Automatic annotation (TrEMBL):
It is a multi-pass membrane protein. PANTHER family: UPF0060 MEMBRANE PROTEIN YNFA (PTHR36116:SF1). InterPro entries: EmrE-like, UPF0060. Belongs to the UPF0060 family. Keywords: Cell membrane, Membrane, Transmembrane, Transmembrane helix. The chain crosses the membrane at residues 6-25, 34-53, 59-77, 89-107. This is UPF0060 membrane protein. It is found in: Cell membrane. It comes from the Bacteria.
Length: 112
């Protein structure tokens, strides 16, 4: 249950962070206005709080692992929202990042 909860929290964090960045991008680069930017700022703030709900107590470990989720999530966002088509190198890189997440977060560790 803890791993499933952790993965769900990573997905929620990715949606908040990537979505927030995308909203700011749309507001600024696509000239959609300040409300889009404001929504992006709120979403980015939500990302910061979601990260605190991870069951692991080590900030550095969580943020390092989240980096891999961010990479894969960004490609997935681009595919769904912007119709971006990643090439095989994008997919290989994302797979490597997700393997890193698994090692960092879910490898068995000796308890002190």
């Amino acid at each position: 249950m803890t791993v499933a909860r952790s993965i769900l929290l990573f997905v929620l964090a990715a949606l908040a962070e990537i979505g927030g960045c995308w909203l700011i991008w749309q507001g600024w680069r696509e000239h959609r206005g300040l409300w889009w930017i404001a929504a992006g700022v709120v979403a980015l703030g939500a990302y910061g709080f979601v990260a605190t709900l991870q069951p692991d107590a080590n900030f550095g470990r969580i943020l390092a692992a989240y980096g891999g989720i961010f990479v894969a999530g960004s490609l997935a966002w681009g595919m769904v929202v912007d119709k971006f088509r990643p090439d095989r190198w994008d997919m290989i890189g994302a797979t490597i990042c997700l393997l890193g997440v698994a090692v960092i977060m879910y490898a068995p560790r000796a308890t002190p």
